[in-house]
Design a protein that fits this description.
By secondary structure, the protein is an alpha+beta fold. Helix content is 32%, strand content 24%. It has a six-stranded mixed β-sheet. Strands 12-13-14-15 form a four-stranded antiparallel β-sheet.
Length: 394
Amino acid sequence: MINKKFLIIGGVVILVCLIVSCLLLRKQIPTQSPLPPTLPAKSKKELKLSDFPEAFKDSTLIVVGDNASDIETWVANEILEYLETYGKTEEEMKIKCCVECIASFHPVEATKPHCSYFLTHSCKKVLNASNTFDFEVFRFCEKILNEKGFKVTQEVIYPDGRKVCNLNIYYKPGYCRCPDGSIKIKKINELGEENEICIDSLKIISYSKLTEEDKRNYNLIIIGTPKTNPFLEEVYATTNATRVTEEFPGEGKGVLEILPNPWNESKAMLLVEGSDKWGARVGSLMIVEENKKLTKERKFVDWVEYTGVEFPIDSEEEAIRYAKTDPGVRNFISAWTAKKGCRVISQVILHEPDEGLFGVGFGVRCFGEPVFDAGYEIRFKDNGEIILSVYRSI
């Protein structure tokens, strides 16, 4: 009887051990239930300086300091003009600029169209418009657009029926499209009504007018020195961008750097910065002239090394080299050398050593029929300060 009890107790103990062993073994075997889905990693595009200008051709703000020097303002305008004309033929530019001219026509003075007040720098050049009232430009644009099948009124209507509205007037949502080179944003008027207005998608803005919304919505090109553009300090605080100071990388030197916009990484940011204004200036020369060769995200630049010009300028050869860095001169040379049978000749036409003043003239001679000449004149001090930069037809 006792043996029977032992057998029963032993059997129960063995059974309990088997059950415990099974439970322990089950815990060690991985379950076959499906793993929770993993979110795809957020992709970051690796930017290179050669992505300029493609990455900045739309919705880009060029930010300068409120106390930007004339040279830094040059840099901003040169980059803006390069972006505005990038990838466009002469005919496309004329149509774009004429739409801009008519669309920006201010309605207050209906008897005196003065679209040139609102034209971008590059469009003023394309249409040969000044900053003053120019009725001939307005009529020229009416004519060329009508010839291309556009209906020209206070609005501009494309051949396919799309309307382009005045840049300065609010419209009900969906009423019209914006001119090429601008974007449509929603605004609430004083009555609380939602309206739309067209704004330039490529423009220069001063740091004090930059909003948090701007930082998120645009690609950014930041120009200047830490002393003249406080926005650079914000960039240094939020990114691993190379910090430029008055001492680093040094006099006449700067840094070109491209990186994701830290306020919206789907946008790009380009830094054209220098220890001084000449460091920023050489950066703009290189990004415009050499962008396809810049295969890294960062490039240290040197004014003297790239241009061969040292201040104070003390020779005619150096004066001509410096004159060729002027945006107006550069555009003049580029435009005329692109024409078959034309060549550009340069010479120093003024040198007053006591005043530290130079004048350089650029002439054009085109051979064939018709034969004509044109010229460009630039005057500057030996420290690089520009006195005069003007196109002269002869």
